[in-house]
Amino acid sequence: MGEVEGAAPEQGVAAERLAVVRQVREGLDLFEADALVAARQAGLDWAEIGAALGMSGQAAGKRARQRYQLTDPRTDRDTGRPRTRGTYRPRTPRNADGDITANRLTLPIRPIQGSELR
């Protein structure tokens, strides 16, 4: 690591130290990502991983997704929640006026007037 050109010697040393900090961080990030992948492959859940890292399981999972783009194929990539198979819900049939229909019988929906409540 060379000194920064045009800087006083103390500034060059300070800049070199910061460069070392950056390199150590990058190395730790790679090490942490590898450890997270290995832990998940070994069957640890996020609560166990979080406890080992000194944080909640939710925080550990969020960190893994945000920093390392690690995702579990059984979870939704955007939310991190377990994937669920969708259930079919039939669309409510409506006529051209937007009224709900059933068996071709149109049921108009209108507000109830005060006199109709008696």
TrEMBL record:
Q: Which domain of life is it from?
A: Bacteria
Disordered: region residues:
57-118
Q: Where is the composition biased (Basic residues)?
A: 82-92
Spell out the protein name for this chain. AsnC family protein
* Organism whose genome encodes this protein: Allosaccharopolyspora coralli
